C-alpha cells in the first residue's frame, strides 16, 4: 500500500489546518456534522474548495436569485456551464462571462490565458462551437510601471490562448482607474453556437455508467486556486503563484475538437469542464445534478509525475481537462476517439447508487462524502449592508479650461483607441467576423446563414460607486445600447460581479443595491440573465470600484443590410435624448475632482427600451447609418471618437453649456443619418465633413484638425507603453 | 479540381480554407497529417493555425509529419500547393520555399487588414490580378517576419518569385515580402489570409480571384518552366 504523509484528523482539528484552506471554525463544524465524524485531509480540502466563494457563491447567492432567468428565448438558464438562448432554425447561442482576476494579478500572462481557456471549455462542455471571444479588462493607471506590466502580460495572455485555439476575439472594453492598482480585473466571455438537440448537461446518471477523464495529465498546478480566488490579495499573494494555472491552448484546441465530436455520440450521458476546483467540483456537481453517487479510482487518473496524492489530484487546477459520463460498455469507443485526437484519457470511475462521492487510491478509501450536502448545503451568509452618506453638492465645471479637459480625456487610455490591445488578438479567424473590435459591438455571422450574433461587454463602475442602484441599471442599459446599435434584438445577458470584500458593510450594500438595479433593468429591457460569475475580495492596495460587468448577445436576422451602410462626409449628425447635468461618476469628475460624489443618478428604463428598439428599427431599415451610444466622457468624447475612427471632420453646434458636453446621463445616442430625418427625441446638431473637427456649445468652442484628434486618440495607450519597464 | 486541406493538430484555419476553395468552385477534403499519400488530389492547401502548438518553432514539427513526403510529391508533380500563414511557415520548414519566418519585429501578435501589392501576376495563382494591383487581405501572426540571406533574396528577385508585398510592413519582413512562389511556379506561400477576404461584407473580397484561379489549374499550361 502506498502511504502519504498527511496530517491526520486530529491534527487538522487541533491545529486548525482547515483555516489555512479557507474554512471557518463554523464551516468546519458543519463538515463534521455532515460527515458524522472529523474529515481527513483530502475531505477537508474538498469541502474547502467546494465552499469557497468562487464555487459556492456563499455571500452572493441571495443577490443572484433576484435576476430574471427565464424568457421566451431562454433554453437553459444559470446552473450549467453556460446559458443557452434560442436563435431560431433549431439553433441556439451559448455564452458566459467569467473572471480570472486574482491569478492575473500575480501572473498576468497565464492568469489571463487560462481565463480564456476556462470560459471556452464552459461553452464547449455544453456542446457548442465557439464563434467569438470578448474581454473586459480593468487596470490601474498606466502611469504606474506595474500596471503597464500587467496590461502587457494580460493582453499577450488573452491573445496567446485565443489566437492559438482559433476563436476570434471580436470585442471588449478596457478601463484604467487607480482603484484597480495591483488588482486588475480580467473578465473573459465566450459565445458559441449549437443545435438544440445537441445541448449537453453536466450530469452523472445511470448506475454503472463510466466516468472518463480526458485532457492534460494532472499536475500539481493551481492547487487551491478557487480558494485563492476567494481571498483578498496581499503581499503574500505573490507566494501563491503556484496557485496559478498554466494554459496549453494547443491541447485546448485538441480537447475542444474531441469534445465536439464526443457530443455527437448518443452514448454520452453528461460532460463537464474541470475548471475551478478541478476534479472535485466537476465530479461532485455532476453527481449532485444526476442525483447519483460517484466513485473515482484516482490511481487511474493520468498524472504528470509520480507521488501526487489524492488530495493534490482532487484540488489541482491543471487546465485543458474534461470529465465525461458515458454509457457502461461504450467507454472504449470514447477512449479510442480521444486517442485519435492524441489526448490522454482514462476511465477513472463509475456512477453509483450511494449518493456519495467516494475516492479510492490503490484500493484505499481517501474520501467518502455525501454528494448533496457538499454541493447544496454550502453555507449562505446574509450580512448587514450600510449605505454611505450622500454628497449632494452640485458639480460645476463651467470655469474650467474645457479645451484642456477635452484633450486630456480623448488622450486618456480609457477613452483613446484600443488598437494597441485588439491588434494583438486574431479577430477574423473563422472568416465570419462582420464587425471586429474598434468601435462598438462585435458581430459574427452564423456560418452558412444570413443571421449574425451581436456581442458586447461593458461595465460602468464609477456610476455604480456613485449610486449602486441606478448604476447597476445603467451597466445593463449601456450594454443594451451597444447591442441595439448593431441592429440586433437583445436576447439575454451574462454577468460577472467584481467587488471588494462582502464582509465590509459598504461593499455589501453596493452588492445588494447594484444587483437589485441590474435585475430591474434585465426585466425592463427583456434581457434575462442566463449565466454568470462572482468575484469578491478584490482588494489589494484598496478596494476596487464595484464593477458588475455585463455581457450581452443579440440576434441580427439578416446581416446583409450592413453592406449598404457607409458613413461619409455630408451625413448629418443627430443627438438623441436630453442632456442633463449628470456628473457623478463621470470622467470629467475623475479628471478634475479625482473623486466620485455619491449622489443619485437617473435612468428611465421604459424610455431606454423604447428608444433603443426604435433606433434599432431605423438602422435595419437603413433610415440611419450608424448609432453610437454616448458613454464615458459624454457627447464631446463620442464625437471625437467618431471623427478619429472614420477620419472625418464634424461641424456641430449644440444649444448646451460647455460643461454639458462632458455630462454623462443615460439613454443618449449620437446617430449618423442623411439630413432631415425625423428621429424621435433627436436633434440634428451638425454634419460630417472633410474639414476639421469643430463643435460649438453656448460658451465653448472646440476646434481641432482631424489629424490632431486622431493622433491624440490613437496615441493614448502607445504613448504610455513606449517607456522601457 | 480536388484539393486536400491538410489538418495538423493545432491547424485552425482549416475550415476557412476548405470553405474558400469550395466557394470558388473547387472540391476539397480534409487530410489528416498522419496520412502518407495524397493520390487522387489535384492540389494541396496548407491552412493557418498553430500546428503542434508552434512548440519548438512554428512549422518545425510539421516538417517531420508523415504527410510531408506526400506534399513534396504533389509539389514535384507541378500541382498547386498553397500555404497560408502557418502553412507558409511549414513550406519554408520543409524546404519547398526558401527563407524563414521569424518573430515580428514588435514581438507582439499582429492582427489587422493589410494593404498589399501583387508584384507578380505572371503566376498561375495570381494571373487574375493586375500587376501592381493593390489588394486587402487580413494578417494575423506572431512570426511573420520573412527572413532570407542576400543570396536568396537576389535569386528571388532574379526569378521573379516575390508575388506579394506589404504596403505598410507590419512585421519587419525583408523588403516588405508577404508572399513568395517557388522557382517552378506551383508552390505559393504567404502570411496574409486570402481565405478571409472573400466577401465585401467581411471587409474584402480580394482573395476570391486567387482561389477561383486555382480551381482552373491546368498542369500543362500552368507549368511555367
UniProtKB/TrEMBL annotation, chain A:
Binding site for substrate: 99-102, 121, 245, 535
CDD domains recorded: PurL_repeat1 (cd02203), PurL_repeat2 (cd02204)
Ligase keyword on record: yes
GO-annotated molecular function: ATP binding; magnesium ion binding; phosphoribosylformylglycinamidine synthase activity
Gene Ontology CC, one term: cytoplasm
Domain PurM-like C-terminal per the UniProt entry, residue ranges: 207-360
Annotated Mg(2+) 2 binding sites: 122, 273
Biological or metabolic pathway of the protein: Purine metabolism; IMP biosynthesis via de novo pathway; 5-amino-1-(5-phospho-D-ribosyl)imidazole from N(2)-formyl-N(1)-(5-phospho-D-ribosyl)glycinamide: step 1/2
Function according to Swiss-Prot or TrEMBL: Part of the phosphoribosylformylglycinamidine synthase complex involved in the purines biosynthetic pathway. Catalyzes the ATP-dependent conversion of formylglycinamide ribonucleotide (FGAR) and glutamine to yield formylglycinamidine ribonucleotide (FGAM) and glutamate. The FGAM synthase complex is composed of three subunits. PurQ produces an ammonia molecule by converting glutamine to glutamate. PurL transfers the ammonia molecule to FGAR to form FGAM in an ATP-dependent manner.
Family matches, as NCBIfam families: FGAM_synth_II, PRK01213.1
HAMAP family: PurL_2
Stated name of the protein: Phosphoribosylformylglycinamidine synthase subunit PurL
From TrEMBL, chain B:
Keywords: ATP-binding, Cytoplasm, Glutamine amidotransferase, Hydrolase, Ligase, Nucleotide-binding, Purine biosynthesis
Keyword set includes Protease: no
Compartments (UniProt record): Cytoplasm
Keyword Hydrolase: yes
Top-rank taxon: Bacteria
Pathway: Purine metabolism; IMP biosynthesis via de novo pathway; 5-amino-1-(5-phospho-D-ribosyl)imidazole from N(2)-formyl-N(1)-(5-phospho-D-ribosyl)glycinamide: step 1/2
InterPro entries: Class_I_gatase-like, PRibForGlyAmidine_synth_PurQ
SUPFAM superfamilies: Class I glutamine amidotransferase-like
Listed GO biological process terms: 'de novo' IMP biosynthetic process
Catalysed transformations (reactions): N(2)-formyl-N(1)-(5-phospho-beta-D-ribosyl)glycinamide + L-glutamine + ATP + H2O = 2-formamido-N(1)-(5-O-phospho-beta-D-ribosyl)acetamidine + L-glutamate + ADP + phosphate + H(+); L-glutamine + H2O = L-glutamate + NH4(+)
Coiled-coil stretches noted in the UniProt entry, renumbered to this chain: none
Pfam families cross-referenced by the UniProt entry: GATase_5
Entry-linked SMART domains: GATase_5
GO cellular component: cytoplasm
Active site: 85, 193, 195
Gene Ontology molecular function: ATP binding; glutaminase activity; phosphoribosylformylglycinamidine synthase activity
EC number: 6.3.5.3, 3.5.1.2
UniProt function note: Part of the phosphoribosylformylglycinamidine synthase complex involved in the purines biosynthetic pathway. Catalyzes the ATP-dependent conversion of formylglycinamide ribonucleotide (FGAR) and glutamine to yield formylglycinamidine ribonucleotide (FGAM) and glutamate. The FGAM synthase complex is composed of three subunits. PurQ produces an ammonia molecule by converting glutamine to glutamate. PurL transfers the ammonia molecule to FGAR to form FGAM in an ATP-dependent manner.
PANTHER family the record matches: PHOSPHORIBOSYLFORMYLGLYCINAMIDINE SYNTHASE SUBUNIT PURQ (PTHR47552)
Subunit structure: Part of the FGAM synthase complex composed of 1 PurL, 1 PurQ and 2 PurS subunits.
Name by which UniProt lists this protein: Phosphoribosylformylglycinamidine synthase subunit PurQ
Gene name of this polypeptide: purQ
Amino acid at each position: 500500500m502506498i502511504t502519504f504523509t498527511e496530517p491526520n484528523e486530529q491534527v487538522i482539528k487541533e491545529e486548525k489546518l482547515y483555516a489555512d484552506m479557507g474554512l471557518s471554525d463554523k464551516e468546519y463544524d458543519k463538515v463534521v456534522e455532515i460527515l458524522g465524524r472529523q474529515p481527513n485531509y483530502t475531505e477537508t480540502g474538498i469541502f474547502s474548495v467546494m465552499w469557497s466563494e468562487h464555487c459556492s457563491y456563499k455571500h452572493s447567492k441571495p443577490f443572484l436569485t433576484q435576476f430574471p432567468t427565464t424568457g421566451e428565448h431562454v433554453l437553459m438558464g444559470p446552473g450549467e456551464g453556460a446559458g443557452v438562448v434560442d436563435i431560431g432554425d433549431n439553433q441556439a447561442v451559448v455564452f458566459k462571462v467569467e473572471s480570472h482576476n486574482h491569478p492575473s494579478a500575480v501572473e498576468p500572462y497565464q492568469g489571463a490565458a487560462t481565463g480564456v481557456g476556462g470560459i471556452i471549455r464552459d461553452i464547449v462542455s455544453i456542446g457548442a462551437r465557439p464563434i467569438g471571444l470578448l474581454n473586459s479588462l480593468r487596470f490601474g493607471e498606466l502611469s504606474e510601471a506595474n500596471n503597464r506590466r500587467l496590461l502587457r502580460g494580460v493582453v499577450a495572455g488573452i491573445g496567446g490562448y485565443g489566437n492559438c485555439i482559433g476563436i476570434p476575439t471580436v470585442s471588449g472594453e478596457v478601463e484604467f482607474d487607480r482603484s484597480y492598482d495591483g488588482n486588475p480585473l480580467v473578465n473573459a466571455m465566450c459565445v458559441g453556437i449549437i443545435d438544440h438537440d445537441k445541448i449537453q448537461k453536466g450530469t452523472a446518471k445511470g448506475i454503472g455508467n463510466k466516468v472518463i477523464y480526458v485532457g492534460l495529465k494532472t499536475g500539481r498546478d493551481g492547487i487551491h486556486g478557487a480558494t485563492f480566488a476567494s481571498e483578498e490579495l496581499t503581499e503574500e499573494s505573490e507566494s501563491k503563484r503556484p496557485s496559478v494555472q498554466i494554459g496549453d491552448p494547443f491541447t485546448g484546441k485538441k480537447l475542444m475538437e474531441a469534445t465536439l465530436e464526443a457530443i455527437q455520440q448518443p452514448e454520452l450521458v453528461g460532460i463537464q469542464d474541470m475548471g475551478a476546483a478541478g476534479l472535485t467540483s466537476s465530479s461532485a456537481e455532476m453527481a449532485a445534478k444526476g442525483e447519483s453517487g460517484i466513485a473515482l479510482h484516482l490511481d487511474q487518473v493520468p498524472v504528470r509525475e509520480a507521488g501526487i496524492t489524492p488530495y493534490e489530484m482532487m484540488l489541482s487546477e491543471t487546465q485543458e481537462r474534461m470529465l465525461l459520463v458515458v454509457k457502461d460498455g461504450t467507454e472504449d469507443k470514447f477512449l479510442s476517439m480521444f486517442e485519435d485526437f492524441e489526448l490522454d484519457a482514462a476511465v477513472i470511475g463509475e456512477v453509483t447508487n450511494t449518493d456519495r462521492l467516494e475516492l479510492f487510491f490503490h484500493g484505499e478509501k481517501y474520501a467518502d462524502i455525501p454528494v448533496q450536502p457538499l454541493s447544496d448545503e454550502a453555507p449562505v451568509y446574509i450580512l448587514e449592508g450600510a449605505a454611505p452618506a450622500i454628497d449632494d453638492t452640485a458639480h460645476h465645471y463651467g470655469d474650467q479650461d474645457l479645451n484642456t479637459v477635452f484633450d486630456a480625456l480623448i488622450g486618456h487610455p480609457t477613452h483613446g483607441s484600443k488598437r494597441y490591445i485588439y491588434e494583438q488578438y486574431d479577430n477574423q479567424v473563422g472568416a465570419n467576423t462582420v464587425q471586429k473590435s474598434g468601435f462598438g459591438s462585435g458581430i459574427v455571422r452564423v456560418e452558412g446563414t444570413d443571421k449574425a450574433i451581436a456581442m458586447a461587454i461593458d461595465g460602468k463602475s464609477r456610476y455604480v460607486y456613485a449610486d449602486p442602484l441606478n448604476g447597476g441599471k445603467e451597466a445593463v442599459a449601456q450594454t443594451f445600447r451597444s447591442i441595439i446599435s448593431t441592429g440586433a434584438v437583445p436576447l439575454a445577458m451574462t454577468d460577472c460581479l467584481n467587488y471588494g470584500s462582502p464582509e465590509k458593510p459598504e461593499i455589501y450594500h453596493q452588492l445588494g443595491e447594484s444587483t437589485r438595479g441590474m435585475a430591474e433593468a434585465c426585466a425592463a429591457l427583456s434581457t434575462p440573465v442566463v449565466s454568470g460569475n462572482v468575484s469578491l475580495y478584490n482588494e489589494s492596495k484598496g478596494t476596487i470600484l464595484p464593477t458588475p460587468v455585463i455581457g450581452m448577445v443579440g440576434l441580427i436576422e439578416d446581416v446583409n443590410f450592413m453592406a449598404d451602410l457607409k458613413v461619409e462626409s455630408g451625413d448629418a449628425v443627430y443627438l438623441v435624448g436630453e442632456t442633463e447635468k449628470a456628473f457623478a461618476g463621470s470622467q470629467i469628475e475623475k479628471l478634475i475632482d479625482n473623486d466620485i460624489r455619491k449622489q443619485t443618478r437617473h435612468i428611465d428604463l421604459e424610455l431606454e427600451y423604447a428608444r433603443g428598439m426604435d433606433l434599432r428599427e431605423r438602422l435595419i431599415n437603413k433610415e440611419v447609418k450608424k448609432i453610437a451610444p454616448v458613454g464615458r466622457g459624454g457627447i464631446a468624447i463620442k464625437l471625437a471618437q467618431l471623427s478619429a475612427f472614420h477620419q472625418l471632420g464634424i461641424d456641430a453646434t449644440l444649444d448646451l453649456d460647455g460643461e454639458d458636453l462632458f455630462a454623462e446621463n443615460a439613454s443618449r445616442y449620437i446617430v449618423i443619418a442623411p439630413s432631415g430625418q425625423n428621429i424621435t427625441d433627436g436633434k440634428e446638431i451638425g454634419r460630417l465633413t472633410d474639414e476639421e473637427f469643430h463643435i460649438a456649445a453656448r460658451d465653448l468652442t472646440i476646434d481641432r484638425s482631424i489629424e490632431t484628434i486622431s493622433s491624440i486618440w490613437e496615441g493614448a495607450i502607445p504613448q504610455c507603453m513606449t517607456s522601457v519597464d | 479540381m480536388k484539393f486536400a486541406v491538410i489538418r495538423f493538430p493545432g491547424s485552425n484555419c482549416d475550415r476557412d480554407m476548405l470553405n474558400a476553395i469550395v466557394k470558388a468552385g473547387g472540391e476539397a477534403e480534409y487530410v489528416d497529417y498522419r496520412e502518407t499519400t495524397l493520390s487522387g488530389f489535384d492540389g494541396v492547401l496548407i491552412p493557418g493555425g498553430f500546428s503542434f502548438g508552434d512548440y519548438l518553432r512554428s512549422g518545425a514539427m510539421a516538417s517531420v509529419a508523415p504527410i510531408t513526403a506526400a506534399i513534396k510529391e504533389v509539389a514535384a508533380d507541378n500541382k498547386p500547393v498553397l500555404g497560408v500563414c502557418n502553412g507558409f511557415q511549414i513550406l519554408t520548414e520543409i524546404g519547398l520555399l526558401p527563407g524563414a519566418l521569424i518573430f515580428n519585429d514588435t514581438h507582439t501578435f499582429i492582427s489587422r487588414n493589410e494593404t498589399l501589392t501583387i508584384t507578380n501576376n505572371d503566376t498561375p495563382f495570381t494571373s487574375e490580378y493586375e500587376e501592381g494591383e493593390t489588394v486587402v487581405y487580413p494578417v494575423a501572426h506572431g512570426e511573420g517576419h520573412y527572413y532570407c540571406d542576400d543570396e536568396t533574396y537576389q535569386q528571388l528577385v532574379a526569378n521573379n518569385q516575390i508575388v506579394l508585398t506589404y504596403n505598410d510592413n507590419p512585421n519587419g519582413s525583408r523588403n516588405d515580402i508577404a508572399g513568395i512562389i517557388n522557382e517552378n511556379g506551383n508552390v505559393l506561400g504567404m502570411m496574409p489570409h486570402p481565405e478571409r477576404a472573400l466577401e465585401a461584407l467581411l471587409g474584402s473580397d480580394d482573395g476570391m480571384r486567387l482561389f477561383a484561379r486555382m480551381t482552373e489549374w491546368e498542369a500543362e499550361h500552368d507549368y511555367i518552366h
